[in-house]
Amino acid sequence: MPLIPQTVREQVTNQIRNDLLSGRFPAGTMLREIELAARFGVSRGPVRDAFIQLSHEGYLAYQANRGVMVRHPPDPRDREFITELRLKIETYVIERGFEDKSDESVNSVELALERLKEACDSGEASQVAIRDIEFHQKILLACGGDDLVPTWRQLCSRMLLTYTRLGDYSQAYKEHVAIFEPFRDGDMKKTVAAIQANIK
């Protein structure tokens, strides 16, 4: 499958997201358009667009008269609640739309699984986190959950700020294989059970 060329805005957004997930910018750090524009060798426009996108995703927050700040991870009690909400959304979408998935959408989930394996093999923490979420998003889209994905992504971004699977890549990959196989084979109950075992 040919790669789709990325725009400058997409490249900048992806790099800043990677930096956030890898810990390059600690929580509470104020990000400056002019500094990042100089780093990437671009105008401030793509950086500003990246800030907007990453704020929508939940990684950044605008501070009045200060600029853009890296959000703090959720309180452990809040994280438990966020995890429950994420599970409810994934379970609801799968149960509602499991029978509507197409061969093409199943193939897209399998491709996402392959990309997750590549990330796990590379050992790059931010990529493992991103590919983990990409895999789950492909399942939601396969089951017709397009309308709920934006809300779901907000929850995921909060969880990723305290991603707990880093360093345990082999097990993380096996858990996603355990999700994909019943999904591919048409077993909804096993798919949901495997997702519930994976999301922690």
Automatic annotation (TrEMBL):
Domain HTH gntR-type: 6-73
SUPFAM superfamilies for the chain: GntR ligand-binding domain-like (SSF48008), Winged helix' DNA-binding domain (SSF46785)
Native species: Aporhodopirellula rubra
Domain of life: Bacteria
Name this protein carries in UniProt: DNA-binding GntR family transcriptional regulator
Annotated keywords: DNA-binding, Transcription, Transcription regulation
MF GO annotations: DNA binding; DNA-binding transcription factor activity
InterPro entries according to UniProt: GntR_C, TF_FadR/GntR_C, Tscrpt_reg_HTH_GntR, WH-like_DNA-bd_sf, WH_DNA-bd_sf
Keyword Metal-binding belongs to the record: no
Database matches in SMART domains: HTH_GNTR (SM00345)
